[in-house]
Design brief:
The protein starts with a helix and ends in a 5-residue tail after the last helix. α2 runs parallel beside α3. It has a single domain, classed as Nucleotidyltransferase, domain 5, CATH 3.30.420. It has 3 helices and 4 strands, in the order αβββαβα. With about 120 residues, the protein is of the alpha+beta class. The longest helix is centred in the first third of the chain and has 19 residues. It has a 4-stranded mixed β-sheet.
Length: about 120
Amino acid sequence: MNNLALKAKNLALRKRRIRARLSGTSTRPRLSVFISGRHVSAQIIDDTKHKTVAAATTIGSKVAKGTMTEKSAWVGAEIAEKAKKAKVASVVFDRGGRMFHGRVKALADAAREKGLEF
């Protein structure tokens, strides 16, 4: 198994382990983060109803420019604004198997700054 496949396998295992412990409810939905090589996506998901409450992504956005950390901060602010419109004040943070630093931390800090609680 080459190094890239091993990293992908370990990420999938961490993601599955995290998702086994947390889930979103209608009062406190799950904020799920996905970061690829070029784009950042975040969704607020109600796992009891299997519905996406709000979503934000850099795909197709002309506003989100700069480094990946700056894009992550933009997505965090955007998802917090959409959560306010959907009347969601508090969420459970699902970091998607990634460590809580860098891009994930920038997204979380921007969302907290705009008023989202987790």
